[in-house]
Design goal:
- By secondary structure, the protein is of the alpha/beta class.
- It has 12 helices and 13 strands.
- It has an 8-stranded mixed beta sheet with strand order 7-8-9-3-10-11-13-12, sandwiched between helices. The chain has a 5-stranded antiparallel beta sheet with strand order 2-1-4-5-6.
- The longest helix has 18 residues.
- It is globular and about 70 Å long.
- The two termini are about 30 Å apart.
């Protein structure tokens, strides 16, 4: 078994949302989430918009300081709320990087591509002189399918796919071990998406990278991930190997997501029963009691309203949180 590179336990991220004293309200964006990622693997994180996927990725890198829980990176605790551990992240920024969702917002429009990629090299003092810095920038651009001519251009001169490649080159500039890919293809044209996903896979094989790949398109996540975690309203509801999750999902929410994956074969598509969920996603400001999915679940009963389901291992490496796993399956 490969070593665990990242381990997250009982991670919480609450954002203040008005009120004072006892009446202070919080948006529970991430509430008691635990998982680990082994060296060299890709963990996919899926769920509908607003379920806390991006917040999980950013809290893991401590771009948002977590409200609770602990984060262990390569055996060293970098954050633990109970033990009051919060190490200086600068040395870890080299090892842990992020590719942001929006290639239009994540690049400074006043900086050239060379300066954008070179900034990380400067901060971590990875080049001895100007020539070495320039060579490193060109090498990073070539890694992601751009060339030296692109170095002196500004972000507005590029298409969305090229900008995202610049964002990936910036993340690779410090030779990281772990990258959070925060919906890196959702803002791109469908024709470009496959190219970028394939590039991520090639880079992983070549440099032994480890990914947390966040997306809401399960068909893309299925293609790139070794294991997949499914989130709903700040909670993980299921986690398993990629093929195991798609073939033998346990949780009713996961089953609904899988039924929505388009099928190319018309006969199979007609035979496939689409599981449509009733109602809307509740507000994270005031989530339902007990199981958060109960307001949209066809199997919900009184127990679901009173008790929170336990996160349990139903089969080796397959975890789910549901009171009625026997009914659902």
């Amino acid at each position: 078994m490969a070593e665990k590179l990242v381990e997250v336990s009982h991670l919480q991220q609450y954002f203040p949302a008005g009120g004072l004293g006892k009446n202070r309200k919080y948006v529970k964006a991430v509430d008691d989430v635990s998982f680990f990622i082994k060296k060299g693997e890709t963990l996919g994180l899926v769920g509908e918009s607003g379920c806390g996927k991006t917040t999980t990725g950013r809290s893991l890198l401590r771009l948002y300081e977590p409200t609770g829980g602990s984060i262990v990176y390569d055996g060293a605790t970098i954050f633990d709320k109970e033990k009051k551990i919060a190490v200086n992240m600068l040395p870890y920024r080299r090892k842990m990087q992020i590719v942001f969702q929006d290639p239009y917002a994540s690049l400074d429009p006043r900086m050239t591509v060379a300066d954008i990629v070179g900034e990380a090299i400067d901060i971590h003092k990875l080049a001895a002189n100007k020539k070495e810095r320039q060579d490193k920038i060109i090498e990073m651009l070539e890694r992601v399918g751009l060339n030296s001519e692109h170095a002196n251009r500004y972000p507005h001169e590029f298409s969305g796919g090229q900008r995202q490649r610049v964002g990936i080159a910036r993340a690779l500039a410090v030779d990281p071990e772990f990258i959070v890919c925060d919906e890196p293809i959702s803002a791109l044209d469908v024709s470009i998406q496959a190219q970028v996903v394939n590039m991520f896979e090639d880079l992983q094989q070549k440099y032994g990278l480890t990914y947390l790949f966040i997306a809401h398109d399960l068909s893309v996540v299925k293609h790139i991930s070794d294991r997949i975690g499914v989130m709903y309203l700040g909670k993980l509801v299921e986690l398993a190997d990629s093929y195991e999750l798609i073939g033998h999902s346990m949780h009713p929410y996961t089953k609904s997501l899988i039924s929505a994956i388009p099928i190319a074969d018309p006969k199979k598509a007609r035979a496939n029963k689409r599981i449509v969920l009733s109602g809307d996603v509740p507000s994270p400001l005031n989530p339902p009691s007990g199981c958060r999915f109960r307001t949209r679940c066809p199997y919900a009963d009184e127990k679901c309203a009173c008790e929170e389901p336990v996160w349990q291992e139903t089969a080796p490496g397959h975890f789910a949180a549901c009171h009625h796993l026997d009914k659902v399956n």
